[in-house]
Amino acid sequence: MSDADILAAVETRRQDLIGLAQDLVRIPTLNPPGLNYRQICDYLGTRLLAQGWEVDYVRALGAPGDSDRYPRWNMVARFQTGPGPCLHFNSHHDVVEVGQGWTRDPFAGEVDGDRLYGRGACDMKGGLAASVIAAEAFLATRPGFRGAVEISATADEESGGYGGVAYLAERGWFNPDRVTHVLIPEPLNKDRICLGHRGVWWAEVETHGRIAHGSMPFLGDSAIRHMAAVLDEIENKLTPALATRTTAMPVVPEGARSSTLNINSIHGGQVEPLPGDTSLPAPCVADSCRIVLDRRFLIEEALPEVKSEVTRLLDDLTRARPGFRYSIRDLFEVHPVMTDRAAPVAAATARAVERVLGRLPDFIASPGTYDQKHIDRIGRLKDCIAYGPGLLHLAHQPDEWVGVQDMLDSAKVMALVLADLLAPPV
Questions:
Q1: Alpha helix positions (H), 37-156
Q2: Residue 264: which residues within 8 A CB-CB, separation 6 or more?
Q3: 120 and 192 together in one domain
Q4: Do 236 and 292 reside in the same domain of the chain?
Q5: CA separation (Å) from 400 to 118, 214, 223, 355?
Q6: In order along the chain (426 residues), what is the average pLDDT of each group of 10 residues?
Q7: Residue 294: its pLDDT value, please?
Q8: How does pLDDT run across 172-222, given as a tens digit for each residue?
Q9: Residue 27 carries which DSSP code?
Q10: Please, what's the largest Cα pairwise distance for the chain?
Q11: Exposure string (b/e) for 182-199, b if CB count within 10 Å is 16 or more?
Q12: Measuring CA to CA, which of 9, 143, 268, 422 is 20 to 30 A from 65?
């Protein structure tokens, strides 16, 4: 069976795609604090209900950030014709803060030439809109398919996904007995297929001292000076060692194929006056200093060893440095994930990219994590990739935009993936 009719069905929906993406951008689903989550779920649910989809609205009660003022709402829509596989498109609906430096209204959904501007246009409301149009074009041209199509719009990916995909996965929404394949339309370029991501471990390290008057620091013990010794060990020993470790994962950019460690923050001493307060800081020796470590590790590394090399560094300082005391607290951890490029959804997407763009896609892995981690770890569903329109470096930036043609091409790819996996030729 030719796929020309599916491609034409997407093409005729070009203006609908633009309008849908604009409408999504115009709903400011800012996270934090979690604005307008129910509004965007209702908008999408109303559209799909009118076309015969079954729609569920799921609030992540008790999840981090969920409250009556800022409830964490998710929408899951399903169109099923009978027994068979299910392809699920998962997009997060939350966006990060606007920030400074915009030259356009971040929530106007302005189209200028081939670009649609707005916070979340790239990450990832353009991909969400493309998946909806792809599914609608598929249903219009392949009404006799067998199986199910699902579309979800989920909360809080920008803050870890615990009020979104993690919550749904814990309650069985991604169980392999109801979902077969997952495609996440993250903005990773329309000619790339993302198979997975590196792992992450966040930890807070605190050094402890003894408070004293700043004019007599010899009577105290500065936690900041102790932390300086930690930073020196990290800079001169641990960081160079990590740079020598590389992965076989196709991580982009090239620098992320090595293990990395970033110090996300440092806080030491007494609380300082707020901006505008004319009082002076306390004249004290710091009795506490804290840093947050952001360790990105490779699929070839084991998480227990990732953690132990930091504690060994700290234990060595305890033995070598008089008065050195520390504590460490885990904040967040995610294991690396990697889908085989020969897996059904990856292979079908590769064929579709070649059909639409006339070239083979690049297979990549992400340096940072996204919601595949929850689908893999909690849902135990391995056939999952990320593919969608947009340039990742534009995400979270001022004047964020997504290309209209990129959305259209990605929608064509997604529609062909549906046809490949749910309505193969007979």
A1: 37-49, 126-141
A2: 202, 291, 292, 293, 294
A3: yes
A4: yes
A5: 6, 47, 41, 29
A6: 91 98 98 98 98 98 97 98 97 97 98 98 98 98 96 96 97 96 96 97 98 96 98 98 97 94 96 84 95 98 98 98 98 95 98 98 95 95 97 94 98 98 77
A7: 97
A8: 999 999 999 999 999 999 999 999 999 999 999 999 999 999 999 999 999
A9: S
A10: 86
A11: bbbbbbbbbbbbbbbbbb
A12: 268
Could you give the residue numbers annotated as active site?
94, 157
- Domain boundary pick from 298, 317, 334: 334
**Where residue 69 sits, what CATH number does that domain have?**
3.40.630.10
Of 170, 184, 227, residue with least CA distance to 88: 184
Domain stop point among 302, 334, 366: 334
Residue from 372, 393, 7, 419 nearest 166 by CA: 372
pLDDT (0 to 100) of residue 248: 96
**Residue 276's pLDDT is what?**
85
Ramachandran quadrant class, 155 (left: phi over 0; alpha: psi -120 to 50; beta: rest): beta
Supply the range of the domain harboring residue 93: 4-196+336-422
Beta strand 401-403 with 288-297 is: unpaired
Whether 343 and 329 map to the same domain: the answer is no
Q: Are residues 254 and 269 in the same domain?
A: yes
Q: What is the per-residue pLDDT for 233? A: 98
Is the dihedral angle over the CA atoms 139, 171, 334, 266 positive or is it negative?
Answer: positive
Kindly report the average pLDDT of the chain as a whole number.
Answer: 96
Per-residue model confidence (pLDDT) at position 57 = 98
Query: What is the DSSP code string of 384-397?
Result: EEE--SS-GGGTTS
Q: Are residues 95 and 176 in the same domain?
A: yes
One domain for residues 216 and 300? yes
What is the per-residue pLDDT for 320?
Answer: 97
Q: Within this chain, do residues 63 and 186 fall inside the same structural domain, yes or no? A: yes
Residues 296 and 357 in one domain: no
Query: Which CATH number characterizes residue 309's domain?
Result: 3.30.70.360
pLDDT value of position 1:
57
| Total tally of structural domains belonging to the chain | 2
Nearest residue to 102 (alpha-carbon basis) of 367, 394, 417: 394
The per-residue pLDDT for 271 is: 86
Local structure of residue 217 (DSSP, 8 states): G
